[in-house]
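WARN retry 2 of 3 for item q-0093 after timeout on previous attempt; input resubmitted unchanged.
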Amino acid sequence: MPSANAMTDSISSSHTAAPAHHDPLGSLAASICFLDGQYLPLGQAKVSVLDRGFIFGDGIYEVVPIYFRRPFRLDSHLARFERSTREIGLASPLTRAGWREIIDTLVARCGAEHQFIYWQVTRGVARRDFAFPKDAVPTVFAMTTPFARPGAVQREQGLSAVSRADERWLRCDIKSVSLLGAVLARQYAAEHGADEVVQFRDGRLTEGSASNLWVVRDGRLLAPPRSHYILEGIRYGFMEELAATAGVPFEVREMTLEDVRSADELMLTAATREVLPIVRLDGAPIGTGRPGPIYARLRAGYDAAIEALRSPS
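OK item q-0093 returned
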């Protein structure tokens, strides 16, 4: 058996053998982030390996899109963040005004017109023990990333999806940094050449890997019921508002795989994907296999809400 020193030497050699040019962050390394009271380049931000976010996934996060350098529906994101932290017994270390100050600073330091802000709070650094530590200080992190809005191909040709059993934990309503279930779901889609998964728990529609799902039947916009099985995306309430403005009847109800496959239209919503049509499921077309008229009306309303940020009143 090799000695401990030999094993250490072997590990060190394997690390130093990596190509010198390897840079997993690429150009993002120089972007400015916020970590525990300091603004610094993302490539220099370091967190202890004993942070409970790293060890247990014990933390909460949010993602808010920025259009024309202004946050979109920020109050809703802050309210959901506060709810998630309460659900896991984690006191938010900042007020809403404190989060807004960080967000405004990051946006100002990034040159992009459209960005998305990611922020998270973990329970902090402590001895590895499953019970909550009594004296740990929460770790606060935030960063901004430029992003391109969905393009003409996605809008006009639509996405493909595959159906899958929802194997995640039972508190999907908490926006936890524990995202292995979502990672495996998105990887399932990638391995099947699809853009997203359409998941079902006990035969009932829930959501995508990182999106809410919407069904159109007979001119009505249908949504799965709010429950612990789905994250109530910020766009859940927003889509209900858009439907009302567009004169589209809105209904919440349980739906089966057959209900989805036989739908007239299928859509997803997410922070950076906005609203997009899903035109194929499991290799078969949804409706006509093209983006439908209800999607077009909701898309127009979504675009108008974003455009309003360009020249706020």
